[in-house]
Amino acid sequence: MPIEPQVRIFASPEHLFHSAAERFCLIGQQAIRDRGRFTVALSGGSTPRGLHEELAKDFSAQLSWKDVFFFWSDERHVPPIDADSNYRMANETLLTKLPIPADHIFRVPAEISDAGEAAQAYEQTMHDVFRSGPAAFPRFDLILLGMGPDGHTASLFPGTTALDEKKHWVVANWVEKFSTFRITFTYPVLNHAANVMILVTGADKSTMVARALKDPAANLPCQGVKPLDGELDWFLDQAAAAKL
Ligand code: 6PG
User: Fold this and answer.
1) 3-state class of 65 per DSSP?
2) Could you tell me which of 159, 154, 162 has the C-alpha nearest to residue 43?
């Protein structure tokens, strides 16, 4: 039975990123103590940049980074050097700043021209790392997400086919408004995580945040994130929480 989401509101983005970094490390330390590794999926978009910079700047001694396994909850269908690449952003703001073994970084092979093939290849990589058997879904220790102004999360956009995926872990999702595919985790993967953190900042998202958290009938993609046996935390700055 999904548990009630926690909503944490911070005076500024800086306070939010510091607290999110603390929680990231707390979850990581616990996972490494219990299972010898910390499996985390990073979010795309611009908001996570603040968290990455905070982790690299003030939390480098807080975690045994050699035991962290990095994935992405979604990726744009572009090569890793592209300015739009979520991997590139994380590489520049986090991965190159900390002692992380290269073979613990599992980026989406989004340079593969067929987006469906890229998604399949990524799912296979996850099977190889999680070894959770054909029927089961991987249980990430932590999945990081954001929310778009239309209520999308990862690359689960309103009205797209990936919203209905029940079997695959990763799919190529056609996003009409961007005339492109995105490669994204599906709800089963998001909802099998032990912890999900959704980071949202800025007044431009305050209406959608209020709908997502107060209007169960809004039927927004981000409302489909309901960990079955895990914690869901919304990290909001005051501007994003202004209409709650
Ligand atoms: C992406 C994301 C997406 C993102 C939201 C918010 O690849 O774009 O994963 O879901 O989290 O669009 O983006 P911003 O943080 O840039 O507002």
Assistant:
1) helix
2) 154
Residue ranges around ligand 1 (CB below 6 Å): 43-47, 74, 76, 86, 146-148, 152-155
Quote the mean pLDDT of the chain.
97
Phi, psi (degrees; rounded to nearest 5) at 196: -125, 130
- Amino acid 131: pLDDT: 83
| pLDDT for 236 | 98
Nearest CA to ligand 1 atom 2: 44
Residue to probe by mutation, ligand 1, list 147, 189, 190, 209, most atoms within 8 Å of CB: 147
CA dist., res. 193 & res. 226, Å (int): 10
**Amino acid residing at 52:** H
- Across the range 134-143, mean pLDDT stands at 89
**For residue 2, pLDDT beyond 80:** no
Find the 34 Cα to ligand 1 centroid distance in Å: 31
